Amino acid sequence: MNNFELYNPTKLVFGKDTVSKLGSLVEPYGKKILLVYGGGSIKKSGLYDRVLSELAAIGATVHELPGVEPNPRLSTVHKGVDIVRAEGIEFILAVGGGSVIDAAKAVAAGAKYAGDPWDFTIGKARIEDALPLGTVLTLAATGSEMNGNAVISNWETKQKRGLGSKLVYPRFSILDPQLTYSVPRDQTVNGIVDIMSHVFEQYFTLTDGVPLQSRFAESVLLTVIENGEKALANGEDYEARANLLLAGTYALNGTLPNGVVTDWATHGIEHEVSAIYDIAHGAGLAIIFPNWMKYVYDAKPERFAQFAERVWGIDPAGKSSEELALAGIQATRDYFTRIGAPATLGELGIGAEQLDRMADEAVQFGPIGSFKKLEKADVKRILEMSL
Ligand code: NZQ
Ligand code: ZN
């Protein structure tokens, strides 16, 4: 096990009707609020009205940044920064999925920076200060509700890049599983795949001597696999939605990578696909992840064999590590297919035209991944396998 530091300041407020705590959670940070939300799902569900009434009860003045896109855009972040400056905003409240939360984080940091917040994503500037933010999460997927990361798309340059800082962890996140009842089937599937992918990125490691981290990761996977199918069968199954929501948070809140060298190559590759084609992050991951697995498993087949046995319950009797590993990879693909996720880029109308550019961009800061280091030719091969 490697040395590590664990830091997570986000207060998690989890459970039924916890939106009623919003006023008291916001109040310490000020009365001038920027409410950030997406394309309207919160208006349809009635959550918007509940949030406004909670904020009215503490006498808050609310300005709005609506219309945050899935794969949130830099242009939207700019709009938010302008509102914060013009209105003297003291606190940012994100109500929605990962895209809304990520946009809110970029606005929070961008508002305290004289240059373009895009600079944070390309290493041109570091986040030195940020407005406080909080979230009401409506979709189990990214873990953004309890981490310091945000992913922003620059539509002009067709690039999708991440920023990260301990200064943009949400001060609090409200997670009421009932708020995820209205998530449509395809977004529920995307969320399941994204959560599992976050675990994969941290589980497939060459670091030895990490049994606790491995079992944490396996338990998150088992919980998602089981409850994902239940939530898809009945979108209003409270326990299934609750377990999925909590698993999503734990998959990316800093619990799993402790003392472990993590990978993240597949996320890097997927971001290049969604940067150009604006596809859902989870859909891209469902296509690419099993192909990444096939491409790299031989770096340590025993790790994949353990995955096959413990996560998919595949009987190891009479099988080599290699056979077990491949059976586990196939079981992953089969699960994604069973829940309705895509398996090829072709299904999303994506051909080979931009593979070279995507591979170039994916390695622009050097080789990616750690389980097996990937150069441009490796990334291109994985993309070709995904066509
Ligand atoms: O925009 P609205 O109308 O709210 O609709 C959204 C959106 O269309 C809808 N939705 C959300 N909650 C709903 C709902 N519809 C009905 N009922 C509800 N309760 O779902 C659609 C997708 O929302 P989005 O926020 O885009 O999804 P997700 O949470 O999967 O976020 C994806 C973004 O997060 C980034 C991805 O790259 C992508 O840009 N990621 C962020 C990470 C992080 N910050 O740590 C890590 C991830 O790996 C990921 O890269
Ligand atoms: Zn992800």
TrEMBL record:
<keyword id="KW-0560">Oxidoreductase</keyword>
<protein>
    <submittedName>
        <fullName>Iron-containing alcohol dehydrogenase</fullName>
        <ecNumber>1.1.1.-</ecNumber>
    </submittedName>
</protein>
<dbReference type="Pfam" id="PF00465">
    <property type="entry name" value="Fe-ADH"/>
</dbReference>
<dbReference type="InterPro" id="IPR056798">
    <property type="entry name" value="ADH_Fe_C"/>
</dbReference>
<dbReference type="Pfam" id="PF25137">
    <property type="entry name" value="ADH_Fe_C"/>
</dbReference>
<feature type="domain" description="Alcohol dehydrogenase iron-type/glycerol dehydrogenase GldA">
    <location>
        <begin position="9"/>
        <end position="177"/>
    </location>
</feature>
<dbReference type="InterPro" id="IPR044731">
    <property type="entry name" value="BDH-like"/>
</dbReference>
<feature type="domain" description="Fe-containing alcohol dehydrogenase-like C-terminal">
    <location>
        <begin position="188"/>
        <end position="385"/>
    </location>
</feature>
<dbReference type="InterPro" id="IPR018211">
    <property type="entry name" value="ADH_Fe_CS"/>
</dbReference>
<dbReference type="InterPro" id="IPR001670">
    <property type="entry name" value="ADH_Fe/GldA"/>
</dbReference>
<dbReference type="GO" id="GO:0016491">
    <property type="term" value="F:oxidoreductase activity"/>
</dbReference>
